[in-house]
Design goal:
Length: about 375
């Protein structure tokens, strides 16, 4: 059967592909420590489980494609309360995960051939989605700081994608940087998609939203929120977008024939999660794990890793090994049974990304020590 030109030139996400390989290995009975993706060992918050129990006792209707009106109002209140985004229910779209929101936002905001600026290292879905939609991803290095000079040096583009807190580096943006980005959007007419999926996983500093300004609608800012990492709800596929009302309508037009509304139980669960406050116990656990791994790596001569300000990943520069990072990750998986994501998939060869929040602490230690042992052997042989 012939394939369309669009799909024939597309490739599966490297992150999803590796995670699928690891799952297949586990099904065969192989012992694998999976650092390739961040899957929390925490359950969903009690408020979420209570909301689902209550929801199971009620009728579960189809809702409007954009979501149940009352739940959209609760999520608008969350955006106003937590993120200082003055949003209304008409500016909320509930989706089956952040990837769906990203796809629909890009579909509604750009036409084939339009440029989309993406900073690397990047979440692979940004590039893959652009290519599916026949947009032109423009990959640029994530700057140390967003200055006026950096912003004025960006090429013309239809859309700018900002990921904050950043996957995989954990970088946060301060208020001055956000003000400069907003001013640049005004000057250039560029629109922005801001992925704030890790907003609750802040160890140091504070999370600030780019859309926390009176003219966010005029600037054309779409903000994505997700419970996946912020509330340990990876498999729930619960997310929403805050966007100008006309863009919500356009994104709803895309969503209608694909999935229609997200499941009502998921909508109820997501609203309960965001109403439950900050996940303090989970964050404290993650902070201890982050510090443990950084301490284990402290005297390893071929790894450069900083303690991230946020997020469920650690980003490591392993370029001193002098080997291809894809080959290193394959050797680590085959010889040591530890899966890590090579930075090549995120636009940054010479690096690896590890998700450090799954399994127990002893498993985390064993996995990190296996990485060190494998790299030490290569470093000594170099």
């Amino acid at each position: 059967m012939d394939l369309s030109r669009r799909i024939a030139r597309s490739r599966p996400l490297a992150t999803a592909d590796l995670h699928g390989r690891v799952d297949a290995m586990k099904l065969r009975g192989e012992n694998v420590i999976d650092f390739s993706i961040a899957i929390s060992h925490f359950p969903a918050p009690p408020a979420v489980l209570d909301a689902v129990r209550d929801g199971l006792r009620q009728p579960s209707p189809y809702t409007a494609v954009a979501g149940d009106p009352q739940i959209r109002a609760r999520l608008a209140a969350k955006a106003t309360r937590d993120n200082r985004i003055p949003a209304t229910a008409a500016e909320i779209l509930i989706t089956n995960g952040a990837k769906q929101a990203l796809y629909q936002a890009l579909y509604a905001m750009a036409d084939p051939g339009d440029r989309v600026i993406i900073f690397k290292p990047h979440w692979p879905a940004y590039v893959a989605t652009c290519r599916l939609l026949e947009l032109e991803p423009v990959l640029l290095d994530l700057p140390e700081q967003f200055t006026d000079a950096v912003l004025d040096g960006l090429p013309p583009a239809r859309v700018l994608i900002i990921n904050k807190p950043h996957n995989p580096t954990g970088k946060l943006l301060n208020e001055a940087e956000l003000d400069r980005i907003a001013a640049w959007l005004r000057r250039t007419g560029t629109r922005a998609i801001v992925d704030e999926s890790y907003e609750k996983l802040i160890f140091d500093g504070a999370h600030l939203s780019l859309a926390a300004r009176a003219d966010w609608q005029a600037l054309g800012i779409v903000t994505l929120f997700s419970t996946s990492q912020s509330y340990a709800m990876m498999g729930w596929r619960a997310a929403f977008a805050v966007a100008p009302a006309h863009l919500v309508t356009a994104m709803e037009t895309v969503q209608g024939p694909i999935t229609a509304a997200a499941p009502m139980l998921m909508q109820q669960a997501m609203a309960a999660a965001f109403d439950s406050g900050a996940p303090e116990a989970m964050l404290a656990d993650y902070r201890q794990r982050r510090d443990l791994v950084i301490d284990l790596l402290r005297n390893v001569p071929w790894i450069r890793a900083h303690s991230p300000a946020s997020g469920p990943y650690l980003w490591m520069d392993v370029s001193r090994l002098g080997v291809d990072t894809v080959e290193f990750s394959e050797r680590l998986l085959s010889q040591s049974g530890v899966a890590v994501m090579a930075g090549d998939a995120l636009g940054a060869p010479g690096h690896i990304r590890i998700g450090y929040i799954c399994d127990d602490v002893d498993t985390l230690r064993r996995g990190v020590r296996a990485i060190i042992s494998c790299g030490n052997q290569l470093f000594q042989d170099a």
